[in-house]
Amino acid sequence: MNRLAQTALLFLLGATLLHAGLTDLYLRYVKAGLRPLVLLAGVVLIATAAATLWYERRQSAARQHHHHHHEPRISWLLALPVLALILVAPPALGSYSAAHTGTALTKPFGFPELPAGEPLRLGVADYAGRAVYDDGRSLRDRELKITGFVTLDRAGAPYLVRMGLNCCAADAQPVKIALTGNVPPVLSPDTWLEITGRYTPRRTKDPVNDGPIPYLDVTRARPVPAPADPYDETWNN
Question: Which residue ranges does the record assign to the DUF1980 domain (predicted)?
Fold first, then answer.
């Protein structure tokens, strides 16, 4: 691959990273805290492309009287994956991944005091951790509001899920809440719901890895748009 093709690919990849970092696109790949590194990588790649082009132009005079071997044009096909990255954003991991991966719920280091006022907004992992490992002591007699997407197990039982990240989408794992009570009669996988409900001591085991899954007693459920950041990073903090 000649220097011009290398320069073009470096510039395209750098511009793609800058575009992803300056929008919410990067959240499809890495956790929110890595945004500065995504932007830095984009700047470095564009600077490298510029330096490569400058070096090539300096060397062009020395080569102009010599026969130059042209690399096959097919090498430009290497630009296609970069263009695909620019034009096609992959969807966030959803119900299929959640249904085939066991819950990744782990015991938190502690349980900070919850704010007053109702309804109390909680993340899926926060509710699950308190329900399982603190026996719901801080959740009792509280009206709770939790948002996540729907997944169904093989028996059709519904779960409210958020995928958690350690670093990037490649290591995303689900945390699940089983739903009981006033559950909508028809639920479609990947539908985002805002659930209002109350703690219940009832639990079940994940059919994939036998991990603990707490129930939530649903009083109301309404569809909501998917959030800008579909992943939840709080469960591994």
Answer: 8-90, 132-231
Model confidence pLDDT, tens digit, residues 144-196: 999 999 999 888 899 999 988 777 777 788 999 999 999 998 889 999 999 99
Give the C-alpha distances (Å, rounded to integers) separating 94 from 5, 89, 103, 195. Answer: 37, 15, 13, 18
Q: How far apart (Å, rounded) are the C-alpha atoms in residues 174 and 188?
A: 18
184: exposed, middle or buried (Cβ count in 10 Å: 0-12, 13-18, 19+)? middle
Q: Which residues contact 18 (CB under 8 A, 6 or more apart)?
A: 39, 42, 43, 46
Nearest to 219 by CA among 191, 179, 188: 179
Short-list 172, 220, 161, CA closest to 196: 220
pLDDT digits (tens, 9 = 90+) for 25-81: 777 777 777 888 888 988 888 888 888 877 777 776 556 555 555 555 655 666 666
Listed residue (199, 214, 222) closest to 120, CA to CA:
199
How far apart CA 165 and CA 214 sit, in angstroms, is 21
Name which of 218, 117, 236, 219 is nearest 166 in CA terms: 236
Q: CA 127, CA 234: separation in Å to the nearest integer?
A: 11
Decide: 65 and 56 in contact? Cβ < 8 Å. no
CB of 142 closer than 8 Å to CB of 120 = yes
Q: CB burial class (10 A; 0-12, 13-18, 19+) of residue 126? A: buried
The number of beta carbons lying within 10 Å of the beta carbon of residue 34 is 17
Which is higher by pLDDT, 206 or 7? 206
